[in-house]
Design goal:
Helices cover 55% and strands 3% of the residues.
């Protein structure tokens, strides 16, 4: 059995992501990291990723986590801000506690993979990418 198979309402994963990205896109500077990303697309893509990570269908076809964030200076502060919005989204849609715990555990497992100490640790994914530093975005 998996957390996904135990969910009565599997749509809750989408609802959490939908609320989460509403919060992200409304955030005064965090939204700037997503200015070139369609909100509906990233919501669906993240739903596919989390669904698979929780033991559901493996429909995610995006980049690996480490490869998707190479151009972003992800610091502890940025990671924790993002996590606080995720927790808020989970609360607002009344996600089951078991789902919250499993999801946050998955989230935390990627922390070491994406954290960087400085801008020099960042690499562009594409020639046109900007290196995103939240201290300069704000």
């Amino acid at each position: 059995m998996s957390v996904y198979s135990d969910l009565v309402n599997k749509e809750i994963i989408f609802k959490v992501n939908e609320k989460f990205y509403e919060l992200v896109y409304d955030h005064p500077w965090l939204s700037k990291f997503f200015q070139h990303t369609d909100q509906e697309f990233i919501t669906k893509q993240q739903t596919d990723f989390v669904t698979g990570a929780l033991g559901g269908p493996k429909n995610y076809s995006g980049r690996l986590v480490k490869d998707a964030h190479t151009h972003i200076l992800v610091t502890d502060e940025l990671f924790e801000l993002r996590k606080s919005l995720l927790v808020k989204a989970m609360e607002e849609v009344n996600a089951p506690q078991e789902l919250r715990e499993a999801w946050l555990k998955i989230d935390d497992a990627f922390k070491a993979t994406i954290l960087k100490k400085s801008v020099s640790d960042c690499e562009k994914r594409f020639f046109t990418d900007e290196i995103l530093d939240f201290k300069k975005v704000g």
